Amino acid sequence: MMAVTIKDIARRVDCSYATVSRALNNKPGINQQTRERIMAVAQEMGYQPNAIARGLVTQRTHTIGLVIPDIVNPFFPEIARGVEDVASEHGYTVFLCNTNWNMEKETVYLKALQEKRVDGIIIKPASDFDGPTTGDHSYLEDIQLPVVIFSGQSSTGRHSYIEIDNLRGGFIATKHLIEAGYRRIAFIGGRKSSHSNSERLKGYQMALESYDMPLTDELIVNHDFYSESGFALMEELLKLPNPPDAVFTGNDIIALGVLECLQLHRIRVPEDFGVVGFDNIIFSGYPQIQLTTIAQPKYLMGKYAAEVLLNEINGSATRGVRKTILEPELVIRKTTRKLKFPFNAVKVVNHS
Amino acid sequence: MMAVTIKDIARRVDCSYATVSRALNNKPGINQQTRERIMAVAQEMGYQPNAIARGLVTQRTHTIGLVIPDIVNPFFPEIARGVEDVASEHGYTVFLCNTNWNMEKETVYLKALQEKRVDGIIIKPASDFDGPTTGDHSYLEDIQLPVVIFSGQSSTGRHSYIEIDNLRGGFIATKHLIEAGYRRIAFIGGRKSSHSNSERLKGYQMALESYDMPLTDELIVNHDFYSESGFALMEELLKLPNPPDAVFTGNDIIALGVLECLQLHRIRVPEDFGVVGFDNIIFSGYPQIQLTTIAQPKYLMGKYAAEVLLNEINGSATRGVRKTILEPELVIRKTTRKLKFPFNAVKVVNHS
DNA sequence: GAAATCAATGCAAACGTTTGATATTCTATT
DNA sequence: AATAGAATATCAAACGTTTGCATTGATTTC
C-alpha cells in the first residue's frame, strides 16, 4: 500500500536516488539511456512524485490561496474561474476560501494558508464590510508573501491591487440615464462604508454636475447590497412628493429588488422609469431580466490578479507593487430607453 | 527572513525540539510550566507551524480536492459552499478544480491532487458528459484515496456516491403538471447520455403511465443542458400539429430558454402553458423568473459529501462505501397553475 | 604517458516536523 | 537511605525529496 518512492526506483534501477531525481526532473548531466530506463521504471511502478516532500526542500508548493467572501454570490464565481484558469495553466492549484464576509473566518483562513505555505494569496478582504475599521487593509501588511488584493483602497503599499474604475462606472451609468432623457435620477447604494460604493456615488454626482443637473440629497440613499434593500429603498423613494424617474443602483442585486418594486407598482420600465445596475452578473443578461448595467470584467479581474501574483512569485523580474485599474463598460439592455436626447435638449429641459 | 522553526524556539527556551513539538500540540507528558513557557515564546517569535513538514511525517495534509465541471455554472457554487463549510469546520482546506467538463483537464487535476497528497477527493466526473465512454466512472477506481462521487451511476463500488432521486424528481414534476390540469406534457431533456437526465425522463414516463395518460414519442426531445437548446426545441414542439400545453425540462437553464420562446410567441404562462424545471438554481426564485421547479438540495449535497468523505478519511469507524440518496422537492412558483384538478377529473378529461 | 578535461553518477546534508524508545529527574514509599 | 514508579525531557530516526560537492572513469590534449 505504501506509495512508491524515488528510492524504490533507485533500488530497482540500481543507481542512487539523486540520479533518479535528476532523470525524472529532466535535469542535465544524465545519460540519455539511464534517463529513459528510469522513466520507464517509474512509469511501470506507478510512481507519483510526492509534492509535499518536494515542497519541503524547494520551499515552493505551487499552490495559491483565493480568499473571497462568498462563492455563492454570483459575482465571485467568474473571478474564481479567471484565477483558476491561469493558475492551472501554470501548474498551480488554488485553495478556495469563503470568508462569508467575516473577519474572524478570514483570519483563520489566512493563517491556514500561510501554514500550508502557499506561494501567494489573492484576496477580496472581508474588512471591506466587516470589522471595527471597515475598509482598512493594513492588517494584511504583515503577510510575508505575495498578495494581490481586489480593491483600490489605500494601503501603505506592500501589496498589489486590482480593481475597476468605479468612479468612471458611476459616471457612465448616470450619463447614460441622462442622455436617455430621464430627469430625476436617484442613487440606491449598498453599504455606505464600502469604497467601491462611494466611488460609484462620486461618479454619479460628477455626471449630474457635468450636465448641470441638480444634486438632490433625498435621491441618494444607501443600505446594503441585497435585493430586499433595493426593494425597500425604492418603496421609500416612490413616496417622495417628487419621486425619481430613474435610478442607478450600487449593484445588480439591488437593481433586481428595484425592478420588483416597480413591477408591483405597475410602473413601466423603461418607458416611464429607467434602471441601471452595476456588475453585470450572469442573470442580468437573461431574457427575463435584461438589465442595463455597468459590466465589470470579472473573469479578467481574476485572470489579471492571478497573472500579477504569479509574476510576483516567480519574478525576480517585475518586482514591486502593481496597481491595475480595469475599465467598466456600459451594457445597454431593456431597463433603459433606447431613445437618446442630444446633450442640448437635456439642458433645455433641465432649465425650463 | 527565514521563518522561525521549532528549533529556534527550542534554542531559545533551551530544551529539545521534541519538547517544543509536544508542548505546541498539546501532547501529554509535558510540564505545565514548560508548556506555557514554550507557548509564550512561540507566540512572541511569531512561530507559524510548517504544515508541509508536518504533512510529510504524519502523512496527512488536512486538505481535500473538489473537482467540479464549472464553478460559473450556478449549480455548483452552492455545492462548493456546502463542501467548504464542513471542511473548514473540521480544519480542512479545499482545492478548487474546474474541469470545464473536459476529461483531459480532469485527469491532470486528479494527478496533481494525488501528488499534493490530499486526504480525499470529492468529484462530479467530467465523464458524465465527456470522453469516449460517457457515464463510465471506472477510471476513478484506481485512486488510492477516499473519494466521494456526485452521481448515482454504476461502479464496481470502491467509492461512495451521493445523488438525489432523479426518478422521483421527474415523477413529482410531471405529477404536478398533470394535477394542475395540463394535458399534453412534453419533456425537453439535456444530454441524452446523462444518467440524471434519463432517470428524470423515466420519472416523467412513470407519472404519465400512472395517470393513464398517453406517452407520445414526439413530445420527448433531448439536446443539451443549455438555454439555447431549450429555446430551439420548444420552437420545434410548437410546430407540431398537436403541440403540448406544458413541458418538464431537464434543468432550469433549459426552462429559461423555453420561457423565452413562449414569451416570444405570446403564449401565456401559466394560464395556457405550464413549465417545470429542475435544480432550483438561485435565479429561478428571483421575482422576474419565478420558475416552478424541482429543488435539489445543493448545499446539503455538498455538506453530506464532505461529511462522508471526512468520515472515510478519519474513520476506522464507518469504513465501507456509502450511498446517499437525497430527496428532491417540488417548489411551486409562477410558471404552473395553482388550480388543481382532482385526480378523477383528470381521468374524465383524458378519456372524453 | 602524464595531465587535464568532461560527462555521468554517487554521497550526504538539508528542508521542518512527529514520535517511539530511552534517559533523566523528581516524588513518594518503604 | 534506598528505591520504585511517575513525570518529564531528550535522542534519533523517519517522512521523500532536491542539490552542492566529491568521485569515478573515460577521453582528450600536449
Report how far the terminal alpha carbons of chain A are from each other: 86 Å
Order of helices and strands of chain A: HHHHEHEHEEEHEHEHEHEEHEEH
Largest sheet properties of chain A: 6 strands, parallel
**Radius of gyration of chain A over all CA atoms, rounded:** 26 Å
Question: How many helices of chain A?
Answer: 12
Strand content of chain A: 15-25%
Helical coverage of chain A, percent range: 40-55%
Largest interface: A-B, 54 and 54 residues
Low-confidence stretches of chain A: 343-352
Shape of chain A: elongated
State the total count of DSSP E strands of chain A: 12
The oligomeric status of these chains comes to homodimer
Structural class of chain A: alpha/beta
Identify the strand order in the major beta sheet of chain A: 2-1-3-4-5-11
Overall pLDDT level of chain A: 91
Topology:
The structure is a homodimer of 352-residue chains.
Chain A: H1 6-13, H2 17-24, H3 32-45, H4 51-58, E1 63-68, H5 76-89, E2 93-98, H6 103-115, E3 120-123, E4 147-150, E5 160-164, H7 166-179, E6 185-189, H8 195-210, E7 220-222, H9 227-238, E8 246-249, H10 252-264, E9 274-279, E10 292-295, H11 298-314, E11 323-326, E12 329-331, H12 343-351
Parallel strand pairs in A: 1-2, 1-3, 3-4, 4-5, 5-11, 6-7, 6-8, 8-9, 9-10
Antiparallel strand pairs in A: 10-12
Chain A binds a DNA duplex (30 and 30 nucleotides) through helix 2 and helix 4.
